[in-house]
Amino acid sequence: xxxxxxxxxxxxxxxxxxxxxxxxxxxxxxxxxxxxxxxxxxxxxxxxxxxxxxxxxxxxxxxxxxxxxxxxxxxxxxxxxxxxxxxxxxxxxxxxxxxxxxxxxxxxxxxxxxx
Amino acid sequence: xxxxxxxxxxxxxxxxxxxxxxxxxxxxxxxxxxxxxxxxxxxxxxxxxxxxxxxxxxxxxxxxxxxxxxxxxxxxxxxxxxxxxxxxxxxxxxxxxxxxxxxxxxxxxx
Lengths: 115, 110
What we know:
The complex is a heterodimer of chains A (115) and B (110). Chain A is built from no helices and 11 strands. Chain A is an all-beta fold and 115 residues long.
């Protein structure tokens, strides 16, 4: 039973390029969360999605960042025109539906480095 | 605003030297408090969920406890393989996200 899969593990982009981070949730999970982690800082919530719906994007910057979770395929976190401050580890987590209490299962993350 | 504060930021222990990690929280209404372990280069791994004050849970050398304002993660006779960052998170009532603290980086030396 595969866990949460994220790819790529490492992504290097130059300023101004686009970054696309992918996340496949655990089998049977229909809820996906994206978190960002900077060195010496905690995990910061970005966005919560269900299939084809964004439920809560209160933690995501209004510009350059977008997320989707299509009916088929992985969830995508897209960062346009990256800047050095976007360098961080981005973690995806999934949870099963139908439970009010969250129990998140995390992937191994994508380390984004912006040159 | 919901908030989680963990202390200490870092903790160095000798193998076998028991200690406790603290997680203080401010939340409008607590649905659950979570402890995770994170190893370098990996995602957080779930350890415990606590729901109400007075609750305790144990797993091997770890025991988590909860009061109305804080949680403790007690580590009894730690081993070097317990070295990791321990994260605390809360879920408030009527929300669908976890708020994390910045973690305690634990190092256990043989």
